[in-house]
Amino acid sequence: MLLLASLAGFAILVGLLRPIFIYFKDEKGLRKFPAPSIAGLSNWWMAVIQFRAARTKYVHKAHEKLGPVVRIQPNHVSFTDPRAIPDIYSFQSGMMKDDFYETFSGPDQFGVNEHSITNTRDRLVHARKRKFLSSAFALKSVVNVDPIVHTVILKLTGIFDGFCTYGPPQYPDAPKPGFVNLYKWINLFTYDAIGEMAFGQSFGFLDMGDDLATAETGDGKQYKTHIIPTFQNSSYFDVLVATWAPLIDQLKRFTWFLDGNRAGAVFMDVCNYKVRERMRNGKPEGFRDFFENFMTDKQQGEHNLDYSEILRESNIMIAAGNDTSATAMGNVMFLLIKHPRVMAKLREELDPVMPADGDGAFAYEQVKDLKYLKACLDEAMRRRPPVSMGLPREVPKGGATIAGHYVAEGVSVSVPAYSIHHDASLFPEPYEFRPERWLEAEGEQKKVMQQNFIPFSVGPRACIGRNLAYFEQQILVATLVHRYNFELVTPDYELPVIERLNANPDQLWVKVTRRFPMQA
Ligand code: HEM
């Protein structure tokens, strides 16, 4: 007994002393970088700020206090010097995604552990996937689905028109009667839209007014799940666990009973159902959905992907295609409602474009070149980037010089988009929501702004869905702004951020009324 207690005591002592020993030994020369609290010594500082769903906020504060280079984990250095963007993310940097991304892998319902385009760390595997997926998201493919998305927008406007006439249902969690959670409705829209665009079949969430999705296990059992909280729980849990990247597998094994741990598998079951449904139904009539685009090339040659890969990449289309876009649209709507001057100016641009006998939903052709609309979208993604945190990359063999600082190989490095977007030397008065800055800037200033605007990241791992993201925002935001007035619960309401993987807005309760008489 005594021997056991001594062994346990010894193990605890080693567990406590090891990080201190590593810290002072400083083999990678990281002690020269300042660190907030115990971040240089232990991963607990990161774990706590992730647990609070506020990683970027605390990393940003650490930079404000300690300067442009900060050690935010024992093996992770964060940079807010803009020179670090190409040094870390460009093609030439030679950096790959680090082991943080392993948290998004694991066996699927058939026991296969296939990496997706977003989390593979293998250069060749990534290049192959990027090639067959990029045609699915090319601007031409996106524009092709405009009539399909149009019908989904009309469904949403039909529902909102009903709210304006009869009042919305009584939501028990609404802070005031007659208010609706705009962010939730936008998220129902993004699911239905990606269902149509990617698989030729909507999720049917707008019709239900709810996010209850069908899921299918590997052995064919079907069940229902609320997909929005499922995805949110899963990404919150995965990112928290990734704090201890080398221990991800063990941590997941010992936390099997937590909802967040199980949520990833449930989300995969929803994707499995969607893919199986698409395979049963065959291709949709009249247009090429993204599924067909990535299964075959332009000459109709089959890519011959195996089911695990089809499932993984479909999962990414559903996950990446929803949460970021809904976040961006929730944010821009909130910022427009908060800034009536900007809203009025945007309407001046939109009103003449919608014909008097139009159906109320903008077509892509009508909005694609509207400059003020684009400036509003960019300004919102600058102020509230949907992916705010620094995306970690691993310094390759031989080390690297980042923004003038030598960093040893194997160290994780990152640049948080939020901090770059709020650097006053790049974006004057950075906390102001002023879309005009994108139209007024000229010459060198314009170049600086464009180079340091990184909501979609840059380089080989930059967002592949950027065209789709702008397309959805342009048509939906234009339609909502043109057709409705929105009122916040109180004019001074500030929309909180809940940072899981993406920096999601909290609930956005608004009162919706029609701008024009009901016939338009
Ligand atoms: C406003 C909306 C969006 C934002 C802000 C956004 C942002 C980003 C960012 C920052 C990355 C880099 C992630 C990393 O390095 O870990 C990324 C990658 C990616 N995004 Fe998006 N995204 C958006 C919409 C979409 C959409 C609509 C899709 C497609 C359905 C999509 C698909 C992807 C994919 C597949 C990757 C991985 C690319 C690769 O590793 O080669 N995204 N996105």
From TrEMBL:
InterPro entries for this protein: Cyt_P450 (IPR001128), Cyt_P450_CS (IPR017972), Cyt_P450_E_grp-I (IPR002401), Cyt_P450_sf (IPR036396), Cytochrome_P450_monoxygenase (IPR050121)
The keyword Oxidoreductase appears for this protein: yes
Binding-site residues for heme, renumbered to this chain: C463
SUPFAM superfamilies xref list: Cytochrome P450
Cofactor or coenzyme needed: heme
One Pfam family hit: p450
UniProt GO molecular function: heme binding; iron ion binding; monooxygenase activity; oxidoreductase activity, acting on paired donors, with incorporation or reduction of molecular oxygen
Keyword set, alphabetical order: Heme, Iron, Metal-binding, Monooxygenase, Oxidoreductase
Alphabetized Gene3D superfamilies for the sequence: Cytochrome P450
Protein family: Belongs to the cytochrome P450 family.
PANTHER family: CYTOCHROME P450, P450, PUTATIVE (EUROFUNG)-RELATED
Name this protein carries in UniProt: Cytochrome P450 monooxygenase
Species this protein is from: Coniochaeta ligniaria NRRL 30616
Organism lineage string: Eukaryota, Fungi, Dikarya, Ascomycota, Pezizomycotina
